[in-house]
Specification:
heterodimer, A: mainly alpha, two-stranded antiparallel sheet, 6 strands, about 70% helix, globular, B: mainly alpha
Chain lengths: ~475, ~325
């Protein structure tokens, strides 16, 4: 164990942990904004209650995403100073742009949203949540462009042992980034969709348990309240799943060209093979599938780890250029199976809860077993997401910047083993405690359910839409702000 | 102006904005238990920074991101050199953010106590450590770091108390003013020592003509802080806040003036800088985006401009 190993562990721990919260911020934020838009357009009270309910869950999670994100920006300089000096000219730019163009937008407008319920005209208030979620999604783009550059460096030249950017546009439109952004953001929406499904499933079961015969009309109304978010989340997950699959296919083809070692490791392919097979599990081989996935041509040659190792040794000098093969192999499979089963669940759910024929017929109730499956499926998309990152980043090893800089040469030379050990221990302990606290907090809020909206004057959507500017006082009377101000 | 100089100024501007804005956030976080007697007042005090603290923190994120992009060696050197203090700053920012966001969402009063503690510790750590880190950078001495830390911590508390006085009415307002006066007993002497240490870090005090601008800034920062205290005593909340904010800004300008042209020992700005292409393209994007950022952040303060009262429950 040396400082390099610990620094790698620290990056892994803090980054995986950060990414437990980020997908929910990205996807759930849009979901909440959509609910508020629905309330704005229809004036229906249950949309407002759902906005506030999911908004609260969103905010509990948002806080964690923000604070763990600060560590991300700092630790390049702390643990990876050689890397930072080598790449800063190129890699720093998207990070600076992310802060300037995305984080200011996100944090400022979210503050306005949280505290602006009774201070802003309704329409402006709705615009603030949209501005905030645009900021979140924009930040994903910038950081993924930076990350893509590590795997497929473009738009630069190396001068005096440092990368110098020659074309920002090339960095921002890196083919790797353009495939990775829809893949990761799509996956974030799958994670958020799975989260909403689990919450809705839990609420449906809880309310049925409280009223097993479903006799009280109030109760039935309450169960029906969950149909809309459930259906919306099912649609969101299914569409996002299609995006993830499509962009995943693009990524596989790019891997073949840009990071053949990662592709070979993901399949466990040892030697260059024409018409390479794909094994869903070890022992089972689907002939020619890997060649087809990687190139579109079932007969094409896919490179193998051992042959690549020989070639890289010739090109870059003697070293082991193979990543941790079992981790890459298995994380690839876990990603696909867990991710696609979530998407499968969403398609199944859409079918089972589809509308009955005839306009007057009541909608199909969500089967209890489906609600239960939705709750149990909560970890699936997150596990898939984390596996995807392990595949992507462990598969990149031993490089930090593919073909340019080795991980071993990236670490801070002046930082001691003890220092890294202390910070790793501190962050791990703190993160563990906070994860527990967040889980407890989320569960409590889901159990408590949406708060009732205080009685208010009946209002039609058209009248509220037309009087936005002057309805600040009405809004004060209508709405209980989240906090006092 | 040449691009390297310009970007050093941009980064100094971003840090200055961060110190001025998070300065009062930290003070408010530290003072919340002191200034409030019950939950309604606690909400009133923390409500003054509720909508804005996260946006204020982004000044730090942007400052550090800009350092990474414009001066990679400065960024990497500073953060790896001050490894453990920076780790503690991060711990502080983590627990403070979580505490502020979660305290309105916990169900039990006992959980709120944890949040309050997190906000206090998480405000105190960075408020002390930023001063200590930069003082150590200038003087390379543990004593200087201690003085710098006490200075930044006490000035944050004073600045925060003045901010609460500006943003509240009722008993909290009166308490905030008294607290500001009391804090000045520590903040003013600490400011005299720490601020005069900034221009004298590079040249002997007797040789003050070598850095007249640094001395002018440092002395003006001391004067502005004293004026802030006097104006608080006179009940001029708005002017008092302007004065403490100016004091922090002037102090930050002096600090970055002293760090020019070698922000780290043995590392000049020119050596640390990225290439002209990167600096040029970032300049254009920054010049276009920054007015919008300043505009909507300013608008936030306008939306929440009213003084807060304690909620009658």
């Amino acid at each position: 164990m040396d400082a390099l190993d610990l620094a790698r562990w620290q990056f892994g721990v803090t980054t995986v942990y950060h990414f437990l919260f980020v997908p929910l911020t990205i996807g759930l934020g849009v979901f909440v904004a959509g609910l508020q838009t629905a309330w704005h357009r229809t004036g229906k009270e249950h949309y407002l209650r759902l906005t506030k309910f999911f908004g609260k869950l969103f905010l509990i999670n948002f806080a964690m995403g923000v604070v763990t994100g600060i560590v991300q920006e700092f630790q390049f300089g702390m643990n990876w100073s050689e890397y930072s000096v080598f790449v800063g000219d190129v890699f720093g730019a998207p990070l600076a742009l992310e802060a300037l163009l995305a984080f200011f937008l996100e944090s400022t407008f979210l503050g306005l949203w949280i505290f602006g319920w009774d201070k802003l005209p309704k329409r402006i208030h709705l615009a603030t949540i949209w501005a905030a979620v645009i900021g979140s999604n924009l930040s994903a783009y910038f950081i993924l462009a930076a990350n893509a550059w590590m795997k497929h460096p473009v738009g630069y030249e190396v001068v005096d042992g440092k990368a110098r950017m020659t074309d920002l546009w090339a960095v921002l439109t890196n083919s790797t980034a353009l495939a990775q952004v829809p893949h990761v953001v799509g996956a974030a929406f799958v994670v958020a969709g799975g989260f909403v499904l689990a919450v809705c499933g839990y609420r449906i079961l809880q309310e049925r348990r409280a009223d097993p015969d479903r006799t009280r009309p109030m109760r039935r109304g309450a169960t029906d309240m969950w149909r809309t978010p459930m259906r919306a989340a099912l649609v969101m997950t299914a569409i996002a799943g299609a995006v993830v699959a499509g962009s995943g296919d693009m990524s596989a083809k790019l891997l073949h060209e840009q990071q053949p070692m990662k592709l070979a490791a993901a399949e466990g392919l040892r030697h260059d093979t024409a018409g390479a097979p794909f094994s869903p599990v070890p022992g089972v081989k689907v002939p020619m599938l890997l060649s087809f996935l990687a190139t579109g041509d079932p007969q094409a040659v896919v490179h193998g780890t051992e042959d690549l190792q020989a070639r890289f040794t010739q090109q870059f000098g003697p070293a082991d250029y193979r990543p941790n093969l079992p981790v890459v192999f298995w994380s690839f499979r876990v990603m696909i199976v867990f991710g696609m089963s979530t998407v499968g669940l969403s398609v199944l759910g859409l079918w089972l809860t589809r509308r009955r024929r005839g306009k007057q017929a009541p909608p199909r109730e969500t089967p209890s077993w489906l609600a239960r499956v939705c709750v149990l499926a909560l970890p699936l998309p997150t596990v898939a997401m984390i596996s995807g990152w392990l595949l992507s980043e462990i598969g990149r090893q031993p490089w930090t910047v593919q073909g340019e800089l080795l991980t071993a040469a990236s670490v801070s030379p002046g930082v001691s083993l003890g220092e890294v050990a202390v910070s790793l221990a501190v962050f791990t302990a703190l993160y563990g405690a906070l994860a527990l606290a967040e889980a407890v907090l989320l569960v409590r809020h889901v159990k408590a359910g949406p708060e009732p909206v205080p009685a208010r004057r009946p209002e039609t959507p058209s009248s509220s839409g037309g009087r936005d500017g002057g309805s600040a006082e009405d809004a004060t009377a209508r709405l209980q702000p989240t906090l006092m101000y | 102006m040449e691009l390297t100089t310009f970007w050093f100024a941009v980064i100094a501007f971003l840090w200055t904005g961060y110190f001025v804005l998070e300065g009062f956030d930290f003070g408010v976080g530290l003072l919340a238990p002191v200034l409030s007697r019950d939950e309604a007042e606690r909400k009133q005090v923390l409500g003054t920074i509720g909508p804005v603290w996260d946006g204020n923190e982004v000044w730090l994120i942007t400052a550090v991101g800009a350092m990474f992009a414009a001066f990679p060696a400065w960024y990497a050197g500073l953060l790896s050199e001050f490894y453990l203090p920076i780790t503690l700053v991060l711990v502080g920012l983590i627990v403070r953010g979580v505490g502020l966001e979660w305290r309105g969402k916990v169900h039990h009063a006992s959980d709120r106590v944890w949040c309050d503690l997190a906000v206090m510790v998480g405000s105190g750590l960075p408020a002390f450590l930023w001063g200590a880190v930069f003082a150590d950078l200038l003087h390379n001495s543990a004593f200087a770091a201690l003085v710098g830390g006490v200075f930044s911590l006490s000035v944050c508390v004073l600045h925060g108390a003045v901010f609460v006085a500006l943003k509240t009415s009722g008993p909290v307002h009166a308490r905030a003013r008294r607290t500001a006066m009391a804090t000045s007993a520590l903040a003013l002497p600490a400011a005299v020592v720490a601020l005069s240490g900034i221009p004298s870090a590079r040249t002997a005090v007797a040789d003050w003509t070598a850095s007249p601008w640094l001395w002018a800034c440092a002395l003006a920062a001391m004067a502005a802080l004293a004026a802030g205290v006097a104006l608080t005593w006179r009940g001029r909340d708005g002017w008092a806040f302007t004065a403490t904010a100016s004091s922090i800004a002037l102090g930050a300008v002096a600090l970055f003036g002293a760090l020019w042209p070698a922000p780290l020992p043995g590392l000049t700005v020119a050596d640390a800088a990225s290439g002209p292409y990167t600096l040029g393209v970032l300049t254009w994007i920054g010049l276009i985006a920054l007015p919008f950022v300043l505009g909507y952040q300013g608008w936030t303060y306008w939306v929440f401009r009213k003084r807060l009262v304690a909620e009658v429950s």
